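Protocol step 4 of 6: structure prediction from sequence.
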Amino acid sequence: MGNKTLIYRQKIEQNLAESKKHLKRVNDAFSQIKKKYKIPLDKEDYQKIQKDLSALAYSDQIIYRFSKLQDSMGAKLFKSTLLFQGENINKPFLDILNTLEKMEIINVDDWFEIRDLRNEIAHEYDENSNLTADIINMIYELKSELQTVLNKIETLLKNSTN
């Protein structure tokens, strides 16, 4: 294995570990919230969460870690995956996504939905309880999709020649 390949392997392993850590924290926070509240959350439950400091901290953790996960995957993991595969990453991000879709790692439309949710969080989070409850519910629905993407990248890494 050449030096570049080894470096790219280490980078993808680091980025994968970081992404998995964020997803684990999202899942752990959902586990805590589900002890008291039913998912999907409704407006009334989210209003109760806002008064429950422990549950509020978990809901904030869900939103924060989801944003970090999406950033980590989009800015680091996807590029390191392509580098590891010998692909050029000096191209528009849409081309990177299209290459990952051809590799059957992601669905571009699904990724844009995830990115749009992350952008909505950045601009609208905590403005109203209906929207925040919807955001948490959407994260709950999307987290399995993110897990699938991480699993595919992990499988790609395991199946590559050492």
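Step 5 (inspection) to follow. The chain is about 80% helix and 0% strand.
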